Amino acid sequence: MNGDVFARYYRAKGYNVLYPMAFHITGTPVLAISSSIERNDKKTIERMEEYVSLHTSERGQVKKIVKSFVEPWNIVNYFSDTYKSDFKALGMSLDW
């Protein structure tokens, strides 16, 4: 949030400010989640369903999304899109 404050301040002063955002993907945790879901690990599936249900209220859709997490890129794409939506909802002045 500090970066957002600085970006807004300097924009208000007339400066041309670029405030980019990027995501770092760490493969090992993503692969561990994907493998656990593929093995039908109940604890991992419940945890992922809990996270996904914070953004998707329809129970059937939550299960479908979590089931798709057997493919690691689906985890990456889902959460990066979710974080982007969260940042926009917070009103952050990021340059996408």
Automatic annotation (TrEMBL):
GO MF, one annotated term: leucine-tRNA ligase activity
Family matches, as SUPFAM superfamilies: Nucleotidylyl transferase (SSF52374)
Gene3D superfamilies (alphabetical): HUPs (3.40.50.620)
Segment forming the signal sequence: none
GO biological process: leucyl-tRNA aminoacylation
Alphabetical list of InterPro entries matching this protein: Leu-tRNA-synth_Ia_arc/euk, Rossmann-like_a/b/a_fold
Family membership: Belongs to the class-I aminoacyl-tRNA synthetase family.
Name of the protein in its database record: Uncharacterized protein
Native source species: marine sediment metagenome
Top-level taxonomy: unclassified sequences, metagenomes, ecological metagenomes
